[in-house]
Amino acid sequence: MARRSDHTREELTRMALDAAHAITADEGLRGLRARQIARDIGYTIGTLYNLFEDFDDLILHMNGETLDALYRTCSEVELKGDPTEDLEALADRYLEFTRGHQQQWSAVFEHTLPRGRAVPDWYSEKVAKLMELEARALAPLFPGGNPDRIAHHARVLWTSLFGMALVESAERLPEGETARSLVRSLIGTYVAGLKDNRKGEL
Amino acid sequence: MARRSDHTREELTRMALDAAHAITADEGLRGLRARQIARDIGYTIGTLYNLFEDFDDLILHMNGETLDALYRTCSEVELKGDPTEDLEALADRYLEFTRGHQQQWSAVFEHTLPRGRAVPDWYSEKVAKLMELEARALAPLFPGGNPDRIAHHARVLWTSLFGMALVESAERLPEGETARSLVRSLIGTYVAGLKDNRKGEL
DNA sequence: AAATATATTGAACATTGTTCAATTAAATGT
DNA sequence: ACATTTAATTGAACAATGTTCAATATATTT
């Protein structure tokens, strides 16, 4: 059989990625199988390979959507102009998302491409965009400061936040400690340090 | 054929893990195959399964050794008593190791166990031991301070360092930025922040 | 209505981790 | 010295994986 107008190519891709997210959400990336996705959307495996280059390509698209979703929810945070407050609000959103989508979040860094195959540009851009969010919240600390320095400190905080979320999701934090408690100390102390540095400059 | 006294069980395990490290080092965890390990040590796949419960067990042991090696090289760092200097020395060692063993380091967090299978205790302990190293360097900042607070701040720095190493190894840092430059800012600023907080307490 | 184009299928393939009865060599007993 | 027991080693066999592609069935176009 061949059904032509059941679903457009775009609809099929959407269905496949939805199925992939669902499977990943409750079985983890390890439990994701091409045949299972096909079965879930009512098509065969051949059709799946008509939509994606290969399994890695499918996973990249799925993980790309996870990054998009994280970006979307973080960019909704309204910045008040107070760096500490704004950074905390951003971090809280970030952690809220990674907790609510643990398996999908884990999939983002569990997946690797085979040797010699580069991460596509459209994917790298999604990662880069996430880091820019942090810079906006930090900016007030550097009135008239050069953007490179702001970006640098934004990367410090962002990569740290990333590490905390990761360690928490791997359940490697002792009782009573959470990514949130770590982030609170990080932001509070780091912002204090930045202000202190600035005093030294004057 | 069955050779009994060619190698002891311990020797075989050692050979198998060495082979696994070597393959992982130049092909990544993705390229690690049970049959390849067996071939490399001159035995068949059946023997490999006599040494390890299954492939996950083999990977856990390999990654455990990577954690051990990281711990060993970091614990060699001589602490001078100056927190900033000591933390930087520790971080440098850490990053030196993760750069020199990128693939093996990546393998540590790329690997996950199937759903429902818990990380063994002996493995979790290796992770926990690593975090204690940081606490020793931080201690001078909290004369007579309670150990829990020191441990907390050690975790902040350690998880941050972890995130930076990870982002660097995933090659997601822009030109000119390195994990080392990020760590320098983190430690310098964070320690300044801690001193500032202390002033507020007096 | 015939011809063309293409979405869809599913059998087939190489490779994977895993199992286990058969085999062979060492250790032990007589 | 030989027979018996023990266990390390083998490799064929299995189910499941990602991947391919000629055959097929349905739209679309002529």
Structure write-up:
- The structure is a homodimer.
- Chain A has about 200 residues and is mainly α.
- Chain A has 2 domains: about 50 residues, Arc Repressor Mutant, subunit A; about 140 residues, Tetracycline Repressor, domain 2, CATH 1.10.357.10.
- Chain A has 9 helices and no strands.
- In chain A, helix 5 packs antiparallel against helix 7 and helix 5 packs antiparallel against helix 9.
- Chain A is elongated.
- The first copy, chain A, starts with 8 loop residues before the first helix and ends with a helix.
- The mean pLDDT of chain A is about 90.
- At the A-B interface, helix 6, helix 7, helix 8 and helix 9 of A face helix 6, helix 7, helix 8 and helix 9 of B.
- The structure holds a DNA duplex (30 and 30 nucleotides).
Set down the secondary structure blueprint.
Two copies of one chain form a homodimer.
Chain A: H1 9-27, H2 34-40, H3 45-51, H4 55-75, H5 83-100, H6 102-110, H7 121-138, H8 147-169, H9 179-201
Chain A binds a DNA duplex (30 and 30 nucleotides) through helix 3.
